Amino acid sequence: MKKRSRPSASTSGRPRFWGRHAVAAALANPARRSVRLWATRDAAARMELPKELTVTFADVADLGRLVPADAPHQGLVLEVEPLEDVYLDELLAGEDNRPLLVLDQVTDPHNVGAILRSAAAFDAAGIITQDRHSPPESGALARAASGALELVPWARVVNLARALDEIGEAGFWRIGLAGEAERHLADTLGSAKVALVLGAEGEGMRQNTAAHCDELARLPISDRVESLNVSNAAAIALYAAATRG
Q: Which residues contact 177 (CB under 8 A, 6 or more apart)?
């Protein structure tokens, strides 16, 4: 159904995604329920839109009122329902050797989005976060993920330490990335399934989280740089896991 009207602010609480990659990925995901699309006619003509989707045509200025200031919507704004919950045991049930990423209080949606993109690029089995200390689905996160939000399973848990216990019991070697660790990451990666644990920028991993890892490791970065952005560290760690001998 297509119509023309002036967009209004959302009162539904549903996430709104913007930009071609995030919108196209959400529309292509059979597990995602898309509610309504606002689009310029030119942008809509470039998309394959489900016939049942409500499409409201609007100009660029009106679309700008639906998203944060200066958000690069590229003529597309999609309101969606959040994805259904993924449970930890679903991620642990896989028989392959793909790594897991565990994020300890990484709350910046741009960082989590970038981590999801790297997780998709290196075929990670999924990411795990603590529900109270991780960002909700949002346009900014989906934009940073560039479609990977629809591809990488994301389990939110109540207690991260308890989740790490379950991960260990499932046969994963839990490696926490910490700048003070003595060994390099490459030296700690064996042939077992691995869970890579990363802490928030600045604070790093909490002590209790580190205590629930099998081993701590560091990346071989220059002394001229104190640390890496957590999304960059995640990408390097995933590459190391993907290319281990």
A: 185, 196, 197, 198, 199, 205, 216, 217, 218, 219, 233, 237
